[in-house]
């Protein structure tokens, strides 16, 4: 089985993780101690079923082409520039993942 490097950008810090081919991105991030949820969504989220839309991250690849979108939310994300749902992404290539700051449910802070 092939392993892939996932570089996580979190508030100016970069950390490299190793994911097995096909590993769920949300699970990889949570297992490594990264927070993908806003405080309120930590306890009240869908558990990775792609329903609550609160585990959003920005995703890039080495060639700056994001992985294909299979989930309806991620298709909209690709079209309108929303963050991707980490629970709906399988790691099949090296990625750069940028964690975004959230204060409420899935709310993004203005830039």
TrEMBL record:
Under InterPro entries, the record lists: 2Fe-2S_ferredoxin-like_sf, 2Fe-2S_ferredoxin-type, Beta-grasp_dom_sf
Q: Name one GO molecular function term.
A: iron-sulfur cluster binding
CDD domains to which the protein is assigned, alphabetical: fer2
A Pfam family in this protein? Fer2
Chain ranges of the 2Fe-2S ferredoxin-type domain: 4-103
Kindly provide the name given to this protein in its UniProt entry.
2Fe-2S iron-sulfur cluster binding domain-containing protein
Q: Which organism is it from?
A: Halosegnis rubeus
């Amino acid at each position: 089985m092939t392993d892939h490097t996932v570089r996580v950008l979190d508030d100016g810090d970069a950390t490299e993780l190793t994911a097995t081919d096909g590993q769920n991105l949300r699970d990889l991030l949570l297992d490594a101690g990264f927070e993908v949820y806003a405080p309120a969504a930590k306890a009240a989220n869908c558990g990775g079923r792609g329903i609550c839309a609160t585990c959003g991250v920005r995703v890039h690849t080495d060639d700056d082409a994001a992985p294909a979108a299979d989930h309806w939310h991620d298709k909209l994300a690709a079209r309108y520039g929303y963050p991707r749902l980490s629970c709906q992404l399988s790691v099949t290539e090296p990625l750069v993942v940028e964690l975004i700051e959230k204060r409420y449910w899935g709310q993004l802070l203005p830039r």
